[in-house]
Fold this protein.
Amino acid sequence: METEHELVLTELPFDQYQRYKVVQEIVRLIKDQQKAGALRVLDVGGVSNTREGQLFFPISHFLPEDEIMVLDVQDYSAPNYLRVDGDSPFPLANDSFDVVVSCDTLEHVPPGRRSAFLDELLRVARQYVVLAAPFDSEDTRLAEQIFYDFHLRRLGVAQPQLHEHRLYGLPNLQALCEDLEGRGLPYVAFPSGYLYNWLLMMVIKDYVLSLPDSTALHAAIDHLYNRCLLYTSPSPRD
């Protein structure tokens, strides 16, 4: 089950908050346009950890009025959750969700599986797919390399998420857009996040995590950033 601890959304990790805040705004716009009530929303790769180490669904806290299902590879038991093998089709019917969301999951799918992963997102979506990921660029590679080296030198171990980015390679936005065009699907591509703030925040937060009794300080840094700096100008990471 999800944690009973009351979450303060702005105290979530800044990059996670930013991604789901964008999803929240997109879903709100869809509802306004369609004059719709609650929507059925699937979040693929949507299991996360609180700072206390408990698993939870961030999207449920950003879309509390909607019907949510989460799909992930983690071994977890909760209502409205499905565990799937990373190489298997989703055990869901075609067109079964109004909106399908996947935030920072595509880059953790092996390159040879990414097209099939997109197939599944599109198959189960009745109307919309919201796909967020760090896409490949020279600046993004350099920023990730800087933080990867910082983390490795400070702790002596590789940062696992960025290690997987290096192993699989970041997705190519142009190739994704061409894939969608080849399918005859309309799409909108827009930036989400701010690369240079991301790098600074990751270095700061990585250092703060090494301090004793730093949980409250860590949350306060995210809280300030999420309240004040979320919508800074372009040079996107995602």
